[in-house]
Design brief:
Layout (H helix, E strand, L loop, with lengths): L1 E5 L3 E7 L14 E7 L1 H11 L3 E5 L1 E3 L2 H13 L1 E2 L4 E3 L5 E7 L5 E6 L8 H5 L2 H6 L2 E5 L4 H14 L2 E5 L16 E2 L3 H7 L10 H12 L2 E5 L5 E5 L2 E5 L13 H14 L4 H15 L12 H6 L1
Parallel strand pairs: 1-4, 1-10, 2-8, 4-6, 5-7, 10-11, 11-12, 12-13
Antiparallel strand pairs: 2-3, 8-9, 13-14, 14-15
Bound molecules: alpha-D-ribofuranose.
């Protein structure tokens, strides 16, 4: 079973504090860590840990953070042979602020990711064609996002869009998506709605399904997820969690696991339940890479 991933790599600089500072305030934090991140890379590592043969396309700088990335993919068995290493750009950096509740806020500086082009994606065509599922996320510019979906559609590989961070998509992207996995905020942005407006989840999922034509899996954090497939809404219960420590890697653990389950041929509702288990595992462990589960860890739960 094979998964191809097109997305970001970045160094994650995580700060923990009792609360977030207000404008003009300096606050003393309670902890700091640095480690590999970026939604695309996290999703690729998640898929590899769950047993998929995984290939990954991103761009990094020729700097120390980029070197860390190459070492990570090698140790995790992710094929990174098509990754672009840009001599004159910095590897993406993500500043991550985590509150005691485990909730996170992230600012990403894309750096080398801005250099990723549709031509780079076309150079990754053989990997997408060989895969059962291609996973695309949106910390990279929109043209390679759309190209990855287009190539997936052309070669008959199932396309899974994790629309994070969300942006309105061009019209031509929608028919290229088989499965889209927004949270509530991302769903509203994709639909051009105010993310703070009180819209119920059923309505968001159904509207998005009409817009996309494919399946929608609306993620609801601790409340599980809502699947809309073929006009039918199915609630996906949350997997139990003892104590939330850090939610940073949860969405990526969910997406990587979903891709693996779909690649294995599971029906979407079962695949979503498997993904919810992976997300629930991830929130109980600090930082991102250590939190991504192996198959044994999920099956032991
Ligand atoms: O989805 C979590 C990831 O988003 C973090 O690893 C951070 O690097 C940002 O890209």
């Amino acid at each position: 079973m094979k998964v191809a991933v097109v997305g970001s790599y970045g160094a994650g600089l995580t700060v923990k504090s009792a609360r977030q500072p207000v404008a003009g305030e300096t606050l003393l934090g309670t902890g700091f860590s640095q480690g590999p991140g970026g939604k695309g890379s996290n999703q690729a590592v998640a898929a590899a840990r769950l047993g998929a043969e995984t290939s990954f396309l991103t761009a990094v700088g020729a700097d120390a953070f980029g070197q860390d990335a190459l070492a990570l993919w090698q140790s995790e068995g992710v094929d990174a042979s098509k990754v672009v290493v840009a001599a004159d750009a910095q590897t993406m950096v993500a500043l991550i602020m985590v509150e005691p509740s485990g909730e996170n806020r992230i600012i990403v500086v894309p750096g080398a990711l801005n250099l990723l082009t549709p031509a780079d994606v076309r150079g990754f065509r053989a990997e997408i064609a060989a895969a059962d599922v291609v996973v695309v996320s949106m910390e990279i510019p929109l043209p390679p996002v759309v190209e990855a979906l287009r190539v997936g559609r052309e070669v008959g590989t199932t396309t899974l869009l994790n629309p994070a961070p969300a942006a309105e998509l061009p019209d031509q992207a929608w028919p290229l998506i088989d499965i889209v996995t927004p949270n509530r905020t991302e769903a509203a942005i994709l639909l051009g709605k105010d993310p703070d407006a009180a819209i119920d989840s059923e309505q968001l999922a159904a509207e998005l399904a009409r817009r996309s034509g494919g399946a929608v899996l609306l993620t609801l954090g601790g409340q599980g997820a809502l699947l809309c497939e073929g006009g039918v809404l199915t609630p996906i219960p949350a997997a139990p969690v003892e104590k939330v420590v850090d939610t940073t890697g949860a969405g990526d653990a969910f997406t990587g696991a979903l891709a693996v389950a779909v690649a294995e041929g599971m029906p979407l509702a079962a695949a979503a339940a498997f993904a919810a288990k992976a997300g629930a595992h991830a929130v109980t462990i600090d930082e991102v890479i250590p939190a991504l589960p192996t198959r044994a860890q999920l099956e032991g739960n």
